[in-house]
Amino acid sequence: MKNRLKDLRAERGWSQQHLADALEVSRQSVNAIETGRYDPSLPLAFRIADLFGQPIEAIFLNPKETEQ
Amino acid sequence: MKAHTAAGRRYTRRFMPTMAAYVVAILFATWAMKTWHPTGALLVALSVLPALPIIGVIAVIGLYLVEETDEYLRTRIVQAMLVGLGFMLAFTSAWGFMEEGGVLPHMPAYFAFILWCFGWGVAQCVQSFRDRRAA
């Protein structure tokens, strides 16, 4: 699933490791989510949304809309 | 399996002594069978002895899956285990029928675990390679 995680992280000048530590996941997880190879569970998506202070749909793009 | 998480480190800490116990158990059981030529209950006990640490390793793997809180790593390892399972089932099915046809010699049942680990390991190598390419 396409998402804005990399952009949001870059805006804050955070490394993948920094974001991983904040989310209490591995750096591999952050990398897999950023590159769209892994879609996080709803609880993890909510943790990501809370961390960036944005709604889930502002971070994870609706596949139906990104297809067009 | 690289330990990226606390559960991974606990897995390594549990895995090493369990494998050491396996080496001791197989050496002792082999020596005892050759030296004592046991029968009855002692033979049963000595024959099953090397399997006990293997069962321990399976429990250690199970504990890791229960304790791993990183959902991506857990999903990835379960996928690799399923590839290992598929490989083991395909290999033993083919071998079994060829054995029955007299084409191949008898394969001891404990090879199933080795084959599963092999398939799992190869799948993890492929995953790591894909991850590095995507990073």
TrEMBL record, chain A:
Keyword DNA-binding (UniProt): yes
HTH cro/C1-type domain residues: 5-59
Alphabetic keyword roster: DNA-binding
Keyword DNA-binding applies: yes
PANTHER family linked to this entry: DNA-BIDING PHAGE PROTEIN, TRACRIPTIONAL REGULATORY PROTEIN-RELATED-RELATED
Protein name per the record: Helix-turn-helix transcriptional regulator
Organism: Sphingomonas donggukensis
Automatic annotation (TrEMBL), chain B:
Transmembrane segments: 15-33, 39-65, 77-97, 109-129
Keyword entries, A-Z: Membrane, Transmembrane, Transmembrane helix
Annotated protein name in UniProt: Uncharacterized protein
Originating organism: Sphingomonas donggukensis
